[in-house]
Amino acid sequence: MDPGDISYETCYEWIKSVFAPLGVQDITMWVDFKGKTMEDLKRYSAVYIGGGNTFSLMHTILQSDFHVHLSAFKEEGGMIYGGSAGAIVMGSHIATCTHMDDNDVHLKTRAGLSFLDDFSIWCHYEEENDPLIHQFIRAYRKPVIALSEETGLKIQSGKMKVLGTKPAHTFDGNLMKRVIEPGRCI
After folding, report:
1. Distance between CA 15 and CA 168 in Å, rounded?
2. Which H or E element spans position 102?
3. Of 3, 17, 37, 167, which sees the most CB atoms within 10 A?
4. Can you tell me whether residue 128 is helix, strand or coil?
5. What pLDDT score was predicted for residue 33?
6. What does pLDDT average to over the chain?
7. Cα–Cα distance between 155 and 160 in angstroms, integer?
8. Which class for 36: exposed (0-12), middle (13-18), buried (19 or more C-beta within 10 A)?
9. Beta partners for 103?
10. Are 31 and 57 in contact (CB under 8 A)?
11. Hey, CA dihedral for 7, 44, 149, 126, is it positive or negative?
């Protein structure tokens, strides 16, 4: 997040309020990935990557080589959760954000971390987004998982399970849309 839009303190208080009812009290917030290593990540059971501008977030992850450490953390069984831009960067291609984010950092690549096979993530999904999703698929030939505000995914043992109160929507390379209800696997 751009601290000029929402302060780091406000973000920290929000994440604490989200996890407090679940009994999670020990939360550390990093505002800079530079110098962070796999050893640093191993101190934690999970990593949450928040929202903001997707291009800026991906630029920061790549510039600091944090993607290498995140991948290793994931491979060793670490949990990673992304919200909004944090979810988009986990997909195979981040251009799913171009309708809402500007590329002010002049990021050249559009490749994501590819933690979800070949799927790209479309956040804040509403049905009116379907034509934009079709344009994305035609341009980049990537399937899409579209997630509303009340929808998430859990990936475990190679399976993607839909969580939340609303369904996920998948779009394949032929623009075929499928609705996957919460509790079902993609």
Report:
1. 24
2. none
3. 167
4. helix
5. 87
6. 93
7. 4
8. middle
9. none
10. no
11. positive
pTM of the model: 0.92
**Token digits for 126?**
């509403």
> Could you tell me how many residues make up the chain?
186
Could you tell me the two tokens for 101? 């984010």
Ranges under pLDDT 50 in the chain: none
Amino acid at 13: E
Number of H helices, E strands in the chain: 6, 8
Which two three-digit tokens encode residue 116? 């979800």
Residue 146 dihedral angles phi and psi, to the nearest 5°: -100, 130
Q: Report the sign of the C-alpha dihedral through residues 121, 124, 127, 133, in that order.
A: negative
Q: Residue 10, CB half-sphere, CA atoms under 13 Å: how many? A: 7
